[in-house]
Amino acid sequence: MLQPVVAYPGVEGPVVEFGHRRTLAALKCGLPNIPVMLVEVPEGADRVTDQLVENDQRAGLSTAERVAGWEQLAAFGLSASAIAKRTGAKKTDVTTGLKVAGSELASRAGQRWDFLTLEHTAAIAEFDSDPEAVKAIVAAAKTGRFEHTVQRMRDERTDAEAFARARAELVEAGVEVIDRDLVTWPAARLDDHGIDAAEHVSCPGHAAYLGHNFGVGERRPVAVFVCRDVLAHGHVDATQAPVGQGRRLSEEDKAARRVVAERNKQWRSATVVRRDWLRAFAARKRAPVGAERFVLTCLVAGDHPLRQAMEAGWPLLRELLGLTSGESDRFRHGAQVGVLLEMVAAASPKRALLLCAAAVLCAWEDRTGPHTWRNQGADTARYLGQMAEWGYELSEIESYAVTGEPSAAAPEVSSGE
Fold first, then answer.
1. If 0-12 CB within 10 Å is exposed, 13-18 middle and 19+ buried, where does residue 129 land?
2. DSSP states of 230-277
3. FRET partner for 60 with CA separation of 20 to 30 A, picked from 114, 144, 158, 181?
4. What pLDDT shows up at residue 316?
5. In CATH, what number is assigned to the domain containing residue 120?
6. 0.85 cut: is pTM over it?
7. At 22, is the secondary structure helix, strand, or coil?
8. Per the domain annotation, does 250 fall within a domain?
9. Range of the domain at 94
10. From which residue to which does any coiled coil extend (predicted)?
Protein backbone atom coordinates (compact mmCIF):
# COMPACT_ATOMS: atom_id res chain seq x y z
CA MET A 1 0.00 0.00 0.00
CA LEU A 2 1.94 3.03 -1.27
CA GLN A 3 -0.69 5.68 -0.53
CA PRO A 4 -2.98 5.74 2.49
CA VAL A 5 -6.72 5.38 2.09
CA VAL A 6 -8.61 8.54 3.02
CA ALA A 7 -11.54 8.05 5.37
CA TYR A 8 -13.70 10.02 7.77
CA PRO A 9 -15.39 9.02 11.07
CA GLY A 10 -18.70 7.20 10.74
CA VAL A 11 -21.26 5.76 13.15
CA GLU A 12 -19.88 2.23 12.81
CA GLY A 13 -16.27 3.12 12.10
CA PRO A 14 -14.23 4.90 9.40
CA VAL A 15 -15.99 5.52 6.06
CA VAL A 16 -13.75 5.32 3.00
CA GLU A 17 -13.80 8.51 0.92
CA PHE A 18 -10.84 7.84 -1.39
CA GLY A 19 -9.35 4.41 -2.00
CA HIS A 20 -12.29 2.04 -2.37
CA ARG A 21 -10.39 -0.13 -4.85
CA ARG A 22 -7.32 -0.21 -2.57
CA THR A 23 -9.50 -1.18 0.39
CA LEU A 24 -11.24 -3.97 -1.50
CA ALA A 25 -7.91 -5.26 -2.81
CA ALA A 26 -6.48 -5.31 0.74
CA LEU A 27 -9.49 -7.25 2.00
CA LYS A 28 -9.16 -9.74 -0.84
CA CYS A 29 -5.48 -10.21 -0.03
CA GLY A 30 -6.26 -10.72 3.66
CA LEU A 31 -4.15 -7.80 4.92
CA PRO A 32 -4.85 -7.20 8.65
CA ASN A 33 -3.95 -3.50 8.55
CA ILE A 34 -3.54 -0.73 5.98
CA PRO A 35 -2.55 2.95 6.41
CA VAL A 36 -5.55 5.26 6.65
CA MET A 37 -5.63 9.05 6.81
CA LEU A 38 -8.62 10.32 8.81
CA VAL A 39 -10.19 13.62 7.76
CA GLU A 40 -13.21 15.60 8.89
CA VAL A 41 -16.63 14.51 7.73
CA PRO A 42 -17.13 16.21 4.32
CA GLU A 43 -20.36 17.83 3.21
CA GLY A 44 -22.43 15.74 0.82
CA ALA A 45 -21.75 17.73 -2.33
CA ASP A 46 -18.06 18.15 -1.47
CA ARG A 47 -17.66 14.42 -0.95
CA VAL A 48 -19.21 13.51 -4.32
CA THR A 49 -17.24 16.23 -6.12
CA ASP A 50 -13.94 15.11 -4.63
CA GLN A 51 -14.62 11.49 -5.52
CA LEU A 52 -15.53 12.38 -9.10
CA VAL A 53 -12.40 14.45 -9.65
CA GLU A 54 -10.06 12.02 -7.90
CA ASN A 55 -11.29 8.96 -9.78
CA ASP A 56 -11.27 10.76 -13.12
CA GLN A 57 -7.66 11.76 -12.57
CA ARG A 58 -6.64 8.24 -11.57
CA ALA A 59 -8.22 5.58 -13.77
CA GLY A 60 -10.89 7.59 -15.53
CA LEU A 61 -14.59 7.16 -14.86
CA SER A 62 -16.92 5.37 -17.21
CA THR A 63 -19.81 7.27 -18.75
CA ALA A 64 -22.25 5.61 -16.36
CA GLU A 65 -20.13 6.45 -13.30
CA ARG A 66 -19.72 10.07 -14.36
CA VAL A 67 -23.47 10.47 -15.00
CA ALA A 68 -24.26 8.89 -11.63
CA GLY A 69 -21.94 11.35 -9.93
CA TRP A 70 -23.53 14.35 -11.64
CA GLU A 71 -26.95 13.01 -10.67
CA GLN A 72 -25.88 12.83 -7.01
CA LEU A 73 -24.60 16.41 -7.13
CA ALA A 74 -27.85 17.57 -8.70
CA ALA A 75 -29.70 15.87 -5.83
CA PHE A 76 -27.84 18.24 -3.47
CA GLY A 77 -29.43 21.13 -5.34
CA LEU A 78 -26.48 22.04 -7.56
CA SER A 79 -27.21 23.41 -11.02
CA ALA A 80 -25.51 22.13 -14.17
CA SER A 81 -23.27 25.21 -14.15
CA ALA A 82 -22.28 24.63 -10.53
CA ILE A 83 -21.56 20.95 -11.18
CA ALA A 84 -19.43 21.83 -14.19
CA LYS A 85 -17.47 24.38 -12.16
CA ARG A 86 -16.87 21.95 -9.30
CA THR A 87 -15.81 18.99 -11.45
CA GLY A 88 -14.12 20.71 -14.40
CA ALA A 89 -16.61 19.14 -16.83
CA LYS A 90 -18.26 21.02 -19.67
CA LYS A 91 -21.66 22.46 -18.82
CA THR A 92 -23.16 20.97 -22.00
CA ASP A 93 -21.89 17.53 -20.97
CA VAL A 94 -23.37 17.88 -17.49
CA THR A 95 -26.71 19.01 -18.91
CA THR A 96 -26.72 16.05 -21.27
CA GLY A 97 -25.69 13.69 -18.50
CA LEU A 98 -28.57 14.80 -16.28
CA LYS A 99 -30.98 14.07 -19.14
CA VAL A 100 -29.46 10.61 -19.41
CA ALA A 101 -29.86 10.13 -15.65
CA GLY A 102 -33.56 10.92 -16.06
CA SER A 103 -33.98 7.93 -18.39
CA GLU A 104 -33.91 4.58 -16.64
CA LEU A 105 -33.28 2.76 -19.92
CA ALA A 106 -30.37 5.03 -20.91
CA SER A 107 -28.83 4.73 -17.45
CA ARG A 108 -29.02 0.94 -17.55
CA ALA A 109 -27.57 0.87 -21.06
CA GLY A 110 -24.62 2.98 -19.95
CA GLN A 111 -23.96 0.59 -17.09
CA ARG A 112 -24.23 -2.51 -19.28
CA TRP A 113 -22.19 -1.46 -22.34
CA ASP A 114 -18.95 0.29 -21.50
CA PHE A 115 -18.39 1.29 -25.14
CA LEU A 116 -21.31 3.74 -24.97
CA THR A 117 -20.27 7.38 -24.74
CA LEU A 118 -22.28 10.24 -23.29
CA GLU A 119 -23.51 11.07 -26.79
CA HIS A 120 -24.65 7.48 -27.30
CA THR A 121 -26.56 7.29 -24.02
CA ALA A 122 -28.14 10.71 -24.68
CA ALA A 123 -29.52 9.34 -27.95
CA ILE A 124 -30.91 6.32 -26.10
CA ALA A 125 -32.60 8.68 -23.64
CA GLU A 126 -34.08 10.60 -26.57
CA PHE A 127 -35.65 7.43 -28.03
CA ASP A 128 -36.17 5.40 -24.86
CA SER A 129 -39.85 4.81 -25.66
CA ASP A 130 -38.93 2.91 -28.84
CA PRO A 131 -37.14 -0.41 -28.11
CA GLU A 132 -36.25 -1.00 -31.77
CA ALA A 133 -34.69 2.44 -32.03
CA VAL A 134 -32.63 1.74 -28.90
CA LYS A 135 -31.37 -1.52 -30.40
CA ALA A 136 -30.36 0.31 -33.57
CA ILE A 137 -28.56 3.02 -31.59
CA VAL A 138 -26.57 0.50 -29.56
CA ALA A 139 -25.68 -1.44 -32.70
CA ALA A 140 -24.55 1.73 -34.49
CA ALA A 141 -22.55 2.85 -31.45
CA LYS A 142 -20.69 -0.45 -31.57
CA THR A 143 -20.28 -1.01 -35.30
CA GLY A 144 -20.37 2.51 -36.83
CA ARG A 145 -22.55 5.14 -38.53
CA PHE A 146 -24.00 6.27 -35.21
CA GLU A 147 -24.56 9.89 -36.30
CA HIS A 148 -26.32 8.78 -39.49
CA THR A 149 -28.53 6.32 -37.61
CA VAL A 150 -29.70 8.88 -35.06
CA GLN A 151 -30.22 11.63 -37.65
CA ARG A 152 -32.35 9.29 -39.74
CA MET A 153 -34.48 8.46 -36.69
CA ARG A 154 -34.94 12.15 -35.94
CA ASP A 155 -35.92 12.87 -39.51
CA GLU A 156 -38.38 9.97 -39.54
CA ARG A 157 -39.94 11.18 -36.29
CA THR A 158 -40.24 14.76 -37.55
CA ASP A 159 -41.57 13.48 -40.86
CA ALA A 160 -44.21 11.28 -39.21
CA GLU A 161 -45.36 14.07 -36.90
CA ALA A 162 -45.65 16.57 -39.77
CA PHE A 163 -47.61 14.15 -41.97
CA ALA A 164 -49.90 13.19 -39.08
CA ARG A 165 -50.74 16.86 -38.50
CA ALA A 166 -51.36 17.44 -42.20
CA ARG A 167 -53.59 14.38 -42.44
CA ALA A 168 -55.56 15.43 -39.35
CA GLU A 169 -56.13 18.91 -40.82
CA LEU A 170 -57.48 17.41 -44.05
CA VAL A 171 -59.77 14.99 -42.22
CA GLU A 172 -61.04 17.80 -39.99
CA ALA A 173 -61.86 19.78 -43.13
CA GLY A 174 -63.89 16.83 -44.41
CA VAL A 175 -61.43 15.76 -47.12
CA GLU A 176 -60.94 12.06 -47.80
CA VAL A 177 -57.24 11.22 -47.65
CA ILE A 178 -56.20 8.43 -50.01
CA ASP A 179 -52.98 6.64 -50.86
CA ARG A 180 -51.02 8.10 -53.75
CA ASP A 181 -50.93 4.69 -55.47
CA LEU A 182 -54.72 4.89 -55.89
CA VAL A 183 -54.42 7.94 -58.16
CA THR A 184 -54.44 6.12 -61.51
CA TRP A 185 -56.73 6.96 -64.39
CA PRO A 186 -59.63 7.79 -64.28
CA ALA A 187 -58.57 9.22 -60.91
CA ALA A 188 -56.49 12.33 -61.58
CA ARG A 189 -54.90 15.39 -60.00
CA LEU A 190 -57.05 18.46 -60.24
CA ASP A 191 -54.16 20.73 -61.24
CA ASP A 192 -53.47 18.48 -64.24
CA HIS A 193 -56.86 19.49 -65.62
CA GLY A 194 -57.04 23.10 -64.51
CA ILE A 195 -59.66 22.41 -61.83
CA ASP A 196 -59.75 24.70 -58.78
CA ALA A 197 -59.65 22.60 -55.60
CA ALA A 198 -61.88 25.08 -53.74
CA GLU A 199 -64.57 24.73 -56.41
CA HIS A 200 -64.25 20.94 -56.47
CA VAL A 201 -65.12 20.40 -52.80
CA SER A 202 -68.74 19.52 -53.54
CA CYS A 203 -67.79 16.81 -56.07
CA PRO A 204 -68.40 13.25 -54.76
CA GLY A 205 -64.95 12.29 -56.00
CA HIS A 206 -63.13 15.01 -54.05
CA ALA A 207 -60.09 13.63 -52.21
CA ALA A 208 -56.42 14.31 -51.59
CA TYR A 209 -53.15 12.54 -50.97
CA LEU A 210 -50.13 13.87 -49.14
CA GLY A 211 -47.22 14.78 -51.36
CA HIS A 212 -43.85 16.26 -50.53
CA ASN A 213 -42.00 19.53 -50.76
CA PHE A 214 -38.35 18.77 -50.17
CA GLY A 215 -35.70 20.78 -48.35
CA VAL A 216 -32.29 19.93 -46.89
CA GLY A 217 -32.76 17.18 -44.33
CA GLU A 218 -36.55 17.29 -44.41
CA ARG A 219 -39.63 16.69 -46.47
CA ARG A 220 -42.66 18.84 -45.87
CA PRO A 221 -46.18 17.49 -46.46
CA VAL A 222 -48.38 19.17 -49.04
CA ALA A 223 -51.94 18.26 -49.93
CA VAL A 224 -52.44 17.24 -53.58
CA PHE A 225 -56.14 17.36 -54.45
CA VAL A 226 -57.63 14.80 -56.82
CA CYS A 227 -60.90 13.56 -58.20
CA ARG A 228 -61.51 9.85 -57.75
CA ASP A 229 -63.06 9.63 -61.23
CA VAL A 230 -62.80 12.62 -63.57
CA LEU A 231 -64.78 10.78 -66.28
CA ALA A 232 -67.74 9.72 -64.12
CA HIS A 233 -68.04 13.20 -62.59
CA GLY A 234 -67.91 14.98 -65.91
CA HIS A 235 -64.63 16.84 -65.60
CA VAL A 236 -63.02 15.26 -68.67
CA ASP A 237 -64.46 13.81 -71.86
CA ALA A 238 -63.74 10.13 -72.41
CA THR A 239 -61.98 10.92 -75.65
CA GLN A 240 -59.45 12.99 -73.70
CA ALA A 241 -58.21 10.09 -71.62
CA PRO A 242 -54.39 10.28 -71.51
CA VAL A 243 -52.51 7.61 -73.41
CA GLY A 244 -50.76 5.00 -71.28
CA GLN A 245 -52.62 5.69 -68.04
CA GLY A 246 -55.26 3.00 -68.37
CA ARG A 247 -53.58 0.65 -65.91
CA ARG A 248 -52.57 0.75 -62.26
CA LEU A 249 -48.95 0.51 -61.20
CA SER A 250 -47.62 -3.03 -60.96
CA GLU A 251 -46.28 -4.30 -57.67
CA GLU A 252 -42.78 -4.17 -59.19
CA ASP A 253 -43.26 -0.51 -60.11
CA LYS A 254 -44.52 0.29 -56.63
CA ALA A 255 -41.57 -1.51 -55.03
CA ALA A 256 -39.10 0.34 -57.25
CA ARG A 257 -40.69 3.66 -56.36
CA ARG A 258 -40.51 2.83 -52.65
CA VAL A 259 -36.79 2.06 -52.99
CA VAL A 260 -36.18 5.42 -54.65
CA ALA A 261 -38.20 7.26 -51.98
CA GLU A 262 -36.35 5.45 -49.19
CA ARG A 263 -32.94 6.23 -50.64
CA ASN A 264 -33.92 9.88 -51.16
CA LYS A 265 -34.81 10.10 -47.47
CA GLN A 266 -31.52 8.45 -46.53
CA TRP A 267 -29.64 11.02 -48.58
CA ARG A 268 -31.43 13.97 -46.97
CA SER A 269 -30.63 12.61 -43.48
CA ALA A 270 -27.01 12.05 -44.46
CA THR A 271 -26.82 15.64 -45.72
CA VAL A 272 -27.49 16.96 -42.22
CA VAL A 273 -24.69 14.82 -40.74
CA ARG A 274 -22.32 15.62 -43.60
CA ARG A 275 -22.76 19.37 -43.25
CA ASP A 276 -22.27 19.18 -39.48
CA TRP A 277 -18.96 17.44 -40.19
CA LEU A 278 -18.02 20.10 -42.75
CA ARG A 279 -18.80 22.84 -40.22
CA ALA A 280 -16.40 21.24 -37.73
CA PHE A 281 -13.84 20.70 -40.51
CA ALA A 282 -13.94 24.39 -41.49
CA ALA A 283 -13.23 25.34 -37.86
CA ARG A 284 -9.95 23.42 -37.71
CA LYS A 285 -6.63 25.23 -37.44
CA ARG A 286 -4.71 23.16 -39.97
CA ALA A 287 -5.44 21.09 -43.03
CA PRO A 288 -5.20 17.29 -43.00
CA VAL A 289 -2.59 15.36 -44.95
CA GLY A 290 -3.20 15.43 -48.70
CA ALA A 291 -5.07 18.75 -48.78
CA GLU A 292 -2.72 20.32 -51.32
CA ARG A 293 -3.09 17.42 -53.75
CA PHE A 294 -6.89 17.32 -53.40
CA VAL A 295 -7.30 21.05 -54.03
CA LEU A 296 -4.90 21.00 -56.99
CA THR A 297 -6.69 17.99 -58.50
CA CYS A 298 -10.04 19.80 -58.37
CA LEU A 299 -8.51 22.92 -59.91
CA VAL A 300 -6.72 21.08 -62.71
CA ALA A 301 -9.83 18.99 -63.42
CA GLY A 302 -11.81 22.24 -63.74
CA ASP A 303 -14.57 21.09 -61.39
CA HIS A 304 -17.75 22.91 -62.39
CA PRO A 305 -18.96 23.33 -58.76
CA LEU A 306 -15.89 25.50 -58.05
CA ARG A 307 -16.84 28.00 -60.74
CA GLN A 308 -20.43 28.03 -59.51
CA ALA A 309 -19.28 28.67 -55.92
CA MET A 310 -17.02 31.51 -57.05
CA GLU A 311 -19.83 33.19 -58.97
CA ALA A 312 -22.23 32.77 -56.05
CA GLY A 313 -19.81 34.16 -53.46
CA TRP A 314 -19.11 30.86 -51.64
CA PRO A 315 -22.51 30.78 -49.86
CA LEU A 316 -22.17 27.42 -48.08
CA LEU A 317 -18.61 28.14 -46.95
CA ARG A 318 -19.73 31.46 -45.45
CA GLU A 319 -22.69 29.76 -43.77
CA LEU A 320 -20.57 27.02 -42.19
CA LEU A 321 -17.99 29.56 -41.03
CA GLY A 322 -20.75 31.55 -39.30
CA LEU A 323 -20.34 34.62 -41.49
CA THR A 324 -23.22 36.88 -42.51
CA SER A 325 -25.74 35.05 -44.67
CA GLY A 326 -28.02 36.57 -47.25
CA GLU A 327 -28.04 37.19 -50.98
CA SER A 328 -25.24 35.56 -52.95
CA ASP A 329 -22.50 37.80 -54.33
CA ARG A 330 -21.75 37.24 -57.99
CA PHE A 331 -18.13 37.30 -59.16
CA ARG A 332 -16.67 37.76 -55.65
CA HIS A 333 -18.02 41.28 -55.14
CA GLY A 334 -19.91 42.49 -52.07
CA ALA A 335 -19.48 43.02 -48.36
CA GLN A 336 -20.16 39.39 -47.48
CA VAL A 337 -17.32 38.04 -49.57
CA GLY A 338 -15.21 40.91 -48.21
CA VAL A 339 -15.66 39.48 -44.70
CA LEU A 340 -14.49 36.11 -46.00
CA LEU A 341 -11.45 37.74 -47.59
CA GLU A 342 -10.62 39.42 -44.28
CA MET A 343 -10.70 36.02 -42.57
CA VAL A 344 -8.36 34.62 -45.20
CA ALA A 345 -5.96 37.58 -44.83
CA ALA A 346 -5.75 37.07 -41.07
CA ALA A 347 -5.29 33.29 -41.28
CA SER A 348 -1.99 31.56 -40.62
CA PRO A 349 -0.50 29.60 -43.55
CA LYS A 350 -1.78 26.32 -42.06
CA ARG A 351 -5.24 27.76 -41.47
CA ALA A 352 -5.29 29.26 -44.97
CA LEU A 353 -4.65 25.85 -46.52
CA LEU A 354 -7.45 24.41 -44.38
CA LEU A 355 -9.82 27.12 -45.60
CA CYS A 356 -8.81 26.35 -49.16
CA ALA A 357 -9.69 22.69 -48.72
CA ALA A 358 -12.93 23.62 -46.94
CA ALA A 359 -13.86 25.96 -49.82
CA VAL A 360 -13.48 23.15 -52.35
CA LEU A 361 -15.47 20.70 -50.21
CA CYS A 362 -18.24 23.26 -49.68
CA ALA A 363 -18.37 24.01 -53.40
CA TRP A 364 -19.02 20.33 -54.08
CA GLU A 365 -21.40 19.94 -51.16
CA ASP A 366 -23.52 22.86 -52.35
CA ARG A 367 -24.24 20.97 -55.59
CA THR A 368 -25.24 17.67 -54.01
CA GLY A 369 -28.79 16.43 -53.61
CA PRO A 370 -30.86 13.22 -53.84
CA HIS A 371 -29.83 13.10 -57.49
CA THR A 372 -26.23 12.42 -56.39
CA TRP A 373 -26.76 8.81 -55.34
CA ARG A 374 -28.57 8.10 -58.62
CA ASN A 375 -25.69 9.35 -60.74
CA GLN A 376 -22.50 7.75 -59.48
CA GLY A 377 -19.37 9.14 -61.05
CA ALA A 378 -15.66 9.72 -60.54
CA ASP A 379 -16.26 13.29 -59.33
CA THR A 380 -18.67 12.21 -56.59
CA ALA A 381 -16.34 9.39 -55.58
CA ARG A 382 -13.43 11.83 -55.36
CA TYR A 383 -15.41 14.31 -53.23
CA LEU A 384 -16.99 11.85 -50.77
CA GLY A 385 -13.94 9.59 -50.83
CA GLN A 386 -11.70 12.47 -49.74
CA MET A 387 -14.04 13.30 -46.85
CA ALA A 388 -13.96 9.65 -45.79
CA GLU A 389 -10.15 9.67 -45.94
CA TRP A 390 -10.15 12.70 -43.65
CA GLY A 391 -12.32 11.05 -41.01
CA TYR A 392 -15.91 11.39 -42.17
CA GLU A 393 -17.89 8.15 -41.80
CA LEU A 394 -19.92 7.54 -44.95
CA SER A 395 -23.52 6.49 -44.53
CA GLU A 396 -24.90 3.53 -46.46
CA ILE A 397 -26.38 5.73 -49.20
CA GLU A 398 -23.18 7.76 -49.48
CA SER A 399 -21.16 4.56 -49.86
CA TYR A 400 -23.61 3.55 -52.58
CA ALA A 401 -23.03 6.90 -54.32
CA VAL A 402 -19.29 6.19 -54.32
CA THR A 403 -19.26 2.51 -55.27
CA GLY A 404 -22.68 1.79 -56.75
CA GLU A 405 -22.90 -1.20 -54.42
CA PRO A 406 -25.10 -1.42 -51.30
CA SER A 407 -23.14 -2.00 -48.12
CA ALA A 408 -23.63 -4.97 -45.83
CA ALA A 409 -26.15 -4.58 -43.03
CA ALA A 410 -24.76 -4.04 -39.55
CA PRO A 411 -25.16 -6.92 -37.06
CA GLU A 412 -27.90 -6.62 -34.49
CA VAL A 413 -27.19 -5.94 -30.82
CA SER A 414 -29.67 -7.18 -28.25
CA SER A 415 -31.15 -4.45 -26.08
CA GLY A 416 -31.37 -6.89 -23.19
CA GLU A 417 -34.98 -5.97 -22.57
1. exposed
2. TTTTTSS-GGGPPTT-SSPPPHHHHHHHHHHHHHHHHHHHHHHHHHHH
3. 144
4. 93
5. 1.10.10
6. no
7. helix
8. no
9. 5-147
10. none
